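User: I'm new to structure prediction. If I give you an amino acid sequence, what do you actually give back? Let's try with this one:
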Amino acid sequence: MPHDEYRTIDFFAEEALPAPRVTPTEAERVGAELLGRSARAEALGSQQDANFLLRADDGTALAILKIANPAFGALEIEAQDTAADLIASAHPELRVATVLRHPDGSPRRTTVDTDGGPAVARLLRHLPGGSLSGPRHLSPGTVAAMGTIAAKVSTALREYRHPGLDRVLQWDLRHAGRVVAGLAEHIDGPEQRTAVRAATTEAWARVQRLADALPSQAVHLDLTDDNLIRRPDAPLPVPDGVIDFGDLTTSWAIGELAVCLSSVLHHDGVEPHHVLPAVRAFHAVRPLSPAEAEALWPLVVLRAAGLVASGRHQAAVDADNTYVTAALAREWRIFEQATGTPLPVMTLLVKSAIGLDEAPGEADAPACPLLRDLPADHVALCDLSIDADSMDRGAWLDVGTEDRLVAAALADGAVAAATGYARARLTRTPALSAVSGATVPTGVDLRLGRDTVAQAPVEGRVLTAAPGRVEITYGPRVLTLSFPRTIPPLVSSGTSVRAGEELAHLPSGASVHVALRDADGPSVPPQVRPEYAAGWLALTADPAPLLGLPASGGTDRSDLLGRRDAVFATVQEHYYANPPRMERGWRHHLLSADGRSYLDIVNNVTPLGHAHPRVERAVSRQLRRLNTNSRFHYASVVEFTERLAALLPDPLDTVFLVNSGSEAVDLGLRLAIGASGRHDVVALREAYHGWTYASDAVSTSLQDNPNALATRPSWVHTVDSPNSYRGRHRGPDAARYAPEAVALLDELAASGRPAGAFIGETFYGNAGGVALPDGYLAEVYAAVRRHGGLAVADEVQVGYGRLGHWFWGFEQQRVVPDIVCVAKAMGNGHPLGAVITSRAVAERYRDQGYFFSSTGGSPVSSVVGLTVLDTLRDEGLQGNAVRVGGHLKRRLEALADRYGVIGAVHGSGLYLGLELVRDRTTLEPAAEETAELCDRMLDLGVVVQPTGDHLNILKIKPPLCIDIAAADFFADMLDLALTQLGHGRAS
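Assistant: Good question. You get back a string of structure tokens that encode the predicted 3D arrangement of the chain. For your 987 residues, that looks like this:
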């Protein structure tokens, strides 16, 4: 092919574009000429070019040698290099593969002979870090970063003009229809070929209607996972680099984002809704017009179809190109994902993501009711939503709940029972599921309590009439009526009907589904998944008015999180950047407002499980009778404190009741200081004890307060965290922690400031469930007592049977504290805390005045405390912590054998910690990886959070009622998430 520096490519004029065949030896010769030094060439993949990484003898990466396809002229190469320089200048925060230049500023570029003719060869800047390609799941942050980069490139190129942009490329989405038409014959398998052609036809038709409103400009057009380079210093795949300008051209600006989104779709665990963070991020930098939002997903489909057709074609003409053949499977995966959800649904999701929401339509009033002689005021409305009382006590899990509720309504005399539209049905919520269920109804379901006639509510045309189904037009919509298949329709397809004309005779007991959808939209399922509900519902309308029923009002679309931030102090943080709205719990399950079930792995506040009916009944009963403060005389406070004291060894026999762990620790310290007469306190580092003045003063967790150690008051002294895994002394050397703590206590006494108290968790909860070294508390307690101080045990997190083998953490250390502080588990979510000490210590509080807590020890609180103790005993939950906790720990240890990122499995019973590290020798904390894992686990249906000073430990402290099936689900999802996030096997 003659080399003409002024020509540009016209793909349709070429028979094929096989990559030039260049050996590494030939590449080294060209590289030496351009570099002025020898270099070793390593072949890199490319579909149509020849790329090599040039390295020095010591392995240092020097440059990328790119030998363009001979079909590409010098003018096109010049346009690409100029565009790269432009983006690098406009966005210095981005690394860009610009052309390397000689000292005089000229590009290191030449023309070489190849098997396909003369080709332009040049040296480009090498960007270390690696691309985002491969199957690894991409987190929302990574996907958003891709969208941001695409927007920055788009804005930088908006005014760029160059004659080398005047190209006709197969990747230009303006030519997608023609590309697929010409290359689809290379797609093996008639079903795949037909699917690609059909999807292309539909998407192309939608784009053509919008084409005149789509702005065009210079576009990179290949900002894919292959060409976005991750920061080399980032532990997670966060892109900041851009390579490969080979597809630079003038095209629709929105194509830049469409190409980017399509490349996300093949990654493990990614569904179409997972690309929306990129859409929002792009829109935040470079706002989309309404027309561009409408065109975006059709262009994603066209890109996917083009990839499949072009990939098969390229494999046919360049069979030895392993880069091409290796991509075929993922290209088909992209196409399947792009087309798996109807175009209108994805388009509406895109618009919703950028604030162009389209709410469900409102049905016009019917000329007559759809169901004859069925008075609406005698139709019972069955609420199956998150707010329904009928969903209490786990009813949502029972397969027969809907039938039971309907039967009860009909038995009470209702002529029919009807469900609501658009509000998620908990009865359709699967428990322990890696994906959400189809919970959001797009119509109304009825069960008839007597015979009735379905009649046309308005004049219309019958679109479908078959046993069990009738569809007629209803203005701009289609009314669908589904009923048992044994019932024949009374009308025929293609006929017209008058308002009131009979459609079907429906007998008592029949189940009927009524739905309204846009006439020009796709068929709509009866229920849809919540992630896609905004797209589906916008294609429907509430059919309730056709039945004479009030419209449901749909879902609450208000910005609840924004309202929270506006009035709720933001230091009271929430889990997750985009948290699900949790409105219900049951046992070890949490349920969101959109009907998604999550396994709760973090809630040690509710040891009995969420919404325990025994607690609910006890609280309700007591509230009906009396709730006041503990200055009054009543039985429950006596009974509860007796029971609580009986759980402690002698001489711990006296109880103070408060409302929280923070108050308990605060009071415990005041008791110790008052009884000892000494004001200094020694506390363990990496601990959290509360938010009150005293409890915060002894809290040294750097994650709760990054300045914790520097801002301690002078009366607080800290000793090393006795962490035998990652502390200063590890393994057998952990025995050194206790003598060091004793030495500090002795030094304080020698300086005239003996400690009045030593406080510490008895099993290191905040640090991730790490057991204290054997004998640690025995030595330290003895030392503090020797100098007249008291031992204060913080059992707020680990006490009350959570450790399984021990009811109290101090039992594991075989010691008895002077003061025990407890809360959380005591009330199963009700605010309740306690301090238990000896009578002698308790009486010394009178030296400081009297003690009173308005609701601490109230009748309701006391009854709750008693009920929790009864239920812990009666349901054997401490034993369950041994059984299920042991099983779960073995599952986690098995995962540690397989994944190098798991450094250790800490803990006992159902207080476990999974510590993630980047290196098992250095123990470098994998903090960012832990946060990413928590986000992925949420997507898989598990609520789990990080803890520890480095936030690299999964805190595993579920309700004590968790069962083996749930524990296995957690371990299975953890296994899946670790694989999807690319964590390697343990060596």
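You can read the tokens as a compact description of the fold. Here is one thing that stands out. The longest helix spans residues 290-317.
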